[in-house]
Write a structure and sequence with these properties.
Ubiquitin-like (UB roll); 323 residues; six-stranded mixed β-sheet; 2 domains; 30% helix; alpha+beta
């Protein structure tokens, strides 16, 4: 009798047994893979997630637009705070002078300020950004000076010194220490047109690259160079046989108990190979040979003598002759 009542009035196996049986997934084995195996299924999954991706990209784009809107905004004050940094010698006074050339001052658009700063040949690039409070962040990258040029002033005043970049441009060299300028090789016997930042010297692009390579790869030689003569450098025709660079050596950089090396001649077409050759030469041994009886010599480094109908092996030491 007891079993009869349990059978008809007791809890049935398929009845609701509590919260743990509320989810049908607990009653049915779940061995279904979350990632569809077919291409169609995977494309459907991608399409189902596409709205979320587009929403995320929209907010990213909105943030970028708001950032540039704040960066390009024009503040009310013409004298907003300024943060300045450079990798060279220009100072904040230079930047303030550039800003003062326009009545709006720091209230100008950052693109216009950047263009004014980069108009100076000394500035290779300028990064200008405006903060939300209207202040400016200015970071300058300056051109490297590898040589100097002395020019007569148009009104007969003192010589005008301009510095030479590896690209063959000249710039004023504002705030450069005097000693740093004196240590640079001087460009001599050149042909030029224009003035200021528009000064154009024949072959200066060749000699600028040449001096940069010497300065970075062969500094011990570069620091002994007092000047570079361009009398035989023919600019765009620098690879012609007779085109050359004449490097004059600083007198105080050599021993006094041997003949002096006054000059080194490089060809404009193959100076890279000749710089490497110079670094491997035993100059001391060559200048101290018993046959070296002249008081001073010129070292010709041309890989091939380009000026003679009967080529003479190079390199060679040639006694200095009075011109």
């Amino acid at each position: 009798m007891l079993n009869f009542f349990k059978k008809f009035f007791g809890k049935r196996r398929d009845a609701y047994m509590g919260p743990e049986h509320h989810d049908w997934r607990t009653m049915v084995p779940q061995n279904v893979s979350r990632l569809p195996g077919s291409d169609l299924g995977r494309r459907r999954v991608v399409r189902s997630r596409l709205p979320y991706v587009l929403t995320f990209l929209f907010f990213i784009l909105l943030a970028v637009v708001l950032w540039f809107s704040i960066d390009e905004a024009t503040p009310e004050s013409k004298n907003a705070p300024l943060r300045f940094n450079t990798d060279g010698f220009l100072n904040v006074g230079y930047v303030q002078k550039v800003l003062a050339t326009n009545p709006q001052g720091t209230a100008r658009e950052v693109r216009a300020i950047r263009a004014d700063l980069e108009a100076d040949n000394q500035v290779l690039s300028a990064q200008v950004a405006r903060r939300a409070d209207g202040s400016l962040d200015i970071n300058l990258k300056e051109r490297v000076a590898v040589a100097r040029v002395a020019l007569n002033a148009p009104n007969g005043g003192p010589l005008v010194i301009r510095l030479v970049s590896p690209e063959g441009l000249t710039f004023s060299g504002q705030n450069y220490p005097e000693q740093a300028i004196r240590n640079l090789p001087e460009i001599l016997e050149f042909r030029f047109t224009g003035s200021g930042d528009q000064l154009n010297i024949d072959g200066l692009d060749i000699v600028g690259e040449f001096l940069l390579a010497a300065r970075t790869q062969y500094p011990n030689h570069y620091k002994q160079w007092a000047a570079v003569s361009l009398r035989d450098c023919f600019g765009a025709q620098g690879s012609t046989p007779s085109s050359s660079l004449h490097v004059i050596i600083r007198p105080g950089t050599q021993p006094l108990d041997r003949p002096a090396l006054n000059e080194i001649v490089f060809s404009t077409g193959d100076w890279r190979s000749e710089l490497l050759l110079l670094s491997r030469l035993d100059l001391e041994g060559l200048l101290r040979k018993p046959a070296a009886t002249a008081p001073a010599y010129v070292l010709k480094l041309s890989i091939q003598n380009r000026t003679s109908s009967q080529p003479i092996p190079e390199p060679r030491l040639v006694p200095v002759t009075t011109r």
